[in-house]
Amino acid sequence: MITHLLTRIDLSMHSLSKGQKRIALYIEEHYDKAAFMTASKLGETVGVSESTVVRFATELGYDGYPKLQKAMQEMIRDKLTSVQRIEVTSSRIGNDDVLNSVLNQDIDKIRRTIEETSHEDFERAVDKICNADRIYIFGVRSTAAIASFLGYYFELIFDNVRVIDSTSHTTTYERIFRMTDKDVMIGISFPRYSTMAVDAMNYARSQGAHAIAITDSMVSPLVKSADSVLIARSDMASIVDSLVAPLSLINALIVATVLKKKDEVSENFRRLETVWNREGVYASGEKDEEEETEAGKKNGK
């Protein structure tokens, strides 16, 4: 089965109508822009009707325009530069309300994550994490923040967590060289994918560790070495990486591990609460009210 879009276009070019050929040529030259256009917008851009665009998708063997659009997006998943991201985001939002536009796009990513993430892989990942000798979490650049978030909560639950956020091969391998088949590696990476994340996942697989990929698509380079794949939709064309859905998925992973180890975790948190209260880690609402009262008296209120 022919899967690459450009190959499909080349093989079908002789049978395409004049209008469809205009679409094909535009996609070949500007797929980075076309990938984020609606069928109506693409048709308007090349001077054909929306129905012609839909028929073009069918002619290439796709089940509707959304599947063609997805194929274009897969082509550029690893290729959009920061400047191109700005241009694409500008064309997508235009004069719309930025706040509403961005929030609605993030809502859509969470919805798609619900639809696409494997419950079987999720449950298997939770089980492996709870029974691992050591838990390695790898996330660099923009994903370092959510790797750190996951590591923070896992360190409250487990005593065998190691977060790796270095892009240096030497530093990374120094942190993971003791990995065995009793360990778990959680690799987190989204477009543009980290080469070091791929290498770390490959190493984990070679050592027999259970490799868990948190990424955006089954075509992600992390998937090849993964035993469990957790799909969370990102936005490769946004000016900034949208990590709303990945963070939501990580929240679910934390909650699931807590529930699986409920008694042990509850005891851990009882002990932590004692320490936190003794050390005054968190501000007290009553104390804040007293301070506000005293401040009011000083101000003559």
From TrEMBL:
This is MurR/RpiR family transcriptional regulator. Residues 281-301 are annotated as: Disordered. Residues 125-264 form the SIS domain. The keyword Secreted does not apply. Keywords: DNA-binding, Transcription, Transcription regulation. Pfam families: HTH_6, SIS. Transmembrane segments: none annotated. It comes from Ruminococcus intestinalis. The lineage of its organism: Bacteria, Bacillati, Bacillota, Clostridia, Eubacteriales. It comes from the Bacteria. Residues 3-79 form the HTH rpiR-type domain.
